[in-house]
Specification:
By secondary structure, this protein is mainly α. Helix content is 79%, strand content 0%.
Length: 29
Amino acid sequence: MGLPWYRVHTVVLNDPGRLISEIGRASRI
Protein backbone atom coordinates (compact mmCIF):
# COMPACT_ATOMS: atom_id res chain seq x y z
CA MET A 1 0.00 0.00 0.00
CA GLY A 2 1.60 3.26 -1.10
CA LEU A 3 -0.56 5.91 0.51
CA PRO A 4 1.06 9.33 0.89
CA TRP A 5 0.86 9.53 4.69
CA TYR A 6 1.83 13.20 4.71
CA ARG A 7 -1.33 13.88 2.74
CA VAL A 8 -3.38 11.58 4.95
CA HIS A 9 -2.27 13.47 8.04
CA THR A 10 -3.18 16.75 6.38
CA VAL A 11 -6.63 15.42 5.52
CA VAL A 12 -7.10 14.27 9.11
CA LEU A 13 -6.49 17.79 10.32
CA ASN A 14 -8.66 19.38 7.65
CA ASP A 15 -11.50 16.89 7.22
CA PRO A 16 -11.55 13.57 9.13
CA GLY A 17 -14.61 12.47 7.14
CA ARG A 18 -12.59 12.66 3.95
CA LEU A 19 -9.98 10.34 5.42
CA ILE A 20 -12.64 7.67 5.86
CA SER A 21 -13.39 7.89 2.14
CA GLU A 22 -9.69 7.60 1.30
CA ILE A 23 -9.31 4.53 3.52
CA GLY A 24 -12.47 3.02 2.06
CA ARG A 25 -11.19 3.30 -1.50
CA ALA A 26 -7.75 2.01 -0.55
CA SER A 27 -9.27 -1.01 1.20
CA ARG A 28 -11.16 -1.98 -1.96
CA ILE A 29 -7.94 -2.24 -3.94
